[in-house]
């Protein structure tokens, strides 16, 4: 097992290793005297891992209850959030109790937001069950729900008390969902770590899971320590996301998040090359790794449609969008771009 300590407004550990789920109770009890533990999960994850989590917590002395909602992004709503809050209130949960988010990014985000706001904040543990949630959404305290106007438009920064990544649960992930998470892993290599990037290039989908997840969490830990509230360097984690979210949205989410981020990263690289921010070798390296993971790098949507969709993204600041562009593998830059110039940046990336 590897341990990464995150130092933000709260200090907490991220544990990474095989078989960790069965020690959830032990780790939870080390944080708080056992009382009630509410496990919040979804209809995909609960049948697979609910019992293991529940037994582990009960063996450590917790009284467990659970709340399960339908799996999928369509559940990341105000309705689900309010239903969870009502469930917590009806279960008479107090601040000395604990919430466990058992699932992927949707479960983690909505449970984190409920934990941030129920009784003005109650301790929660993230138990991510997808690669994407392990390397990104479970670490760093971003919690959110979607609004009809867009993704993640309501939320809070609220750090968990512990993150427990059981790498064995990745075996049950459908391959396309695993691949989706790989796009975020590749993103860390492009942003910060050429050695990680080379490992991914050489090993493809057979990369060393424990080592790679640990490295991604270390890199995210560094970012969160420097810019917890996302006013500066944390924005680099949006590499591939401005163009990617536009593709995702225009496709009505038939292009998955990971595929869209892959397309967005490839577009960012091509734009950067045309602007002489990076060279052709960097573009080719990114293309080669995306190909190696079976991830796409092009979209058929027009620059005009992509611009319109990108402008509704919450990452826009007034009249400017901060584009993240690679300089070389392991180093990227934030380029504030006036929205009137956005279309030509997109055209260059297509
Ligand atoms: N998912 C991007 C961030 O945590 O800032």
Structural topology:
Elements: E1 2-7, E2 11-17, H1 24-31, E3 36-42, H2 45-59, E4 63-69, H3 78-90, E5 98-103, H4 105-117, E6 124-128, H5 131-137, E7 142-147, E8 150-157, E9 162-166, H6 175-192, H7 194-203, H8 209-226, H9 241-250, H10 257-274, H11 280-292, H12 303-311, E10 316-317, E11 320-328, E12 331-338, H13 342-349
Parallel strand pairs: 2-9, 3-4, 3-5, 5-6, 6-9
Antiparallel strand pairs: 1-2, 7-8, 10-11, 11-12
Bound molecules: glycine.
Descriptive account of the structure:
With 350 residues, the protein is α/β, with parallel strands linked by helices. The chain folds into 2 domains: 2-172, 3-Layer(aba) Sandwich (Rossmann fold), CATH 3.40.50; 175-349, Dehydroquinate synthase-like - alpha domain (Dehydroquinate synthase-like, alpha domain, Up-down Bundle). 46% of the residues lie in helices and 22% in strands. The chain contains 13 helices and 12 strands. Strand 10 and strand 11 form a beta hairpin. Helix 5 runs parallel beside helix 8 (209-226), helix 6 (175-192) packs parallel to helix 10 (257-274) and helix 10 runs antiparallel to helix 11. The structure holds glycine (GLY). Glycine binds at residues 136, 140, 142, 230, 234, 237.
């Amino acid at each position: 097992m590897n341990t990464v300590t995150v130092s933000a407004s709260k200090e907490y550990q991220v544990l990474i290793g095989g078989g960790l789920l069965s020690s959830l109770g032990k780790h939870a009890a080390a944080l708080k005297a056992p009382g009630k533990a509410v496990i919040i999960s979804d209809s995909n994850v609960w049948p697979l891992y609910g019992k293991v989590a529940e037994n582990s917590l009960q063996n450590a002395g917790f009284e467990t209850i659970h709340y399960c909602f339908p799996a999928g992004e369509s559940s990341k709503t105000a309705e689900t959030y309010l239903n969870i809050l009502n469930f917590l209130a009806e279960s008479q949960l107090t601040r000395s109790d604990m919430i466990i988010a058992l699932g992927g990014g949707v479960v983690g985000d909505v449970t984190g937001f409920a934990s941030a706001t129920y009784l003005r904040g109650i301790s929660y543990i993230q138990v991510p069950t997808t690669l994407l949630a392990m390397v990104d959404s479970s670490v760093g305290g971003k919690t959110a729900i979607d609004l009809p106007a867009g993704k993640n438009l309501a939320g809070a920064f609220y750090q968990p008390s512990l993150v427990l990544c059981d790498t064995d649960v990745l075996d049950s992930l459908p391959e396309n969902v695993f691949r989706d998470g790989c796009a975020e892993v590749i993103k860390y290599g492009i942003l910060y770590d050429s050695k990680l990037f080379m490992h991914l290039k050489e090993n493809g989908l057979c990369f060393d899971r424990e080592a790679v997840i640990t490295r991604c969490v270390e890199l995210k830990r560094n970012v969160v320590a420097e810019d917890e509230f996302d006013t500066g360097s944390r924005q680099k984690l949006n590499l591939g996301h401005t163009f990617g979210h536009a593709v995702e949205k225009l496709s009505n989410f038939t292009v998955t998040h990971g595929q869209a981020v892959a397309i967005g990263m490839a577009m960012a690289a091509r734009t950067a090359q045309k602007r002489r921010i990076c060279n052709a070798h960097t573009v080719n390296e990114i293309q080669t790794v995306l190909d190696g993971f079976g991830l796409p790098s092009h979209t058929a949507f027009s620059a005009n449609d992509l611009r319109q969709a990108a402008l509704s993204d919450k990452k826009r600041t007034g009249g400017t969008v901060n584009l993240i562009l690679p300089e070389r593998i392991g180093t990227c830059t934030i380029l504030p771009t006036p929205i009137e110039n956005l279309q030509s940046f997109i055209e260059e990336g297509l």
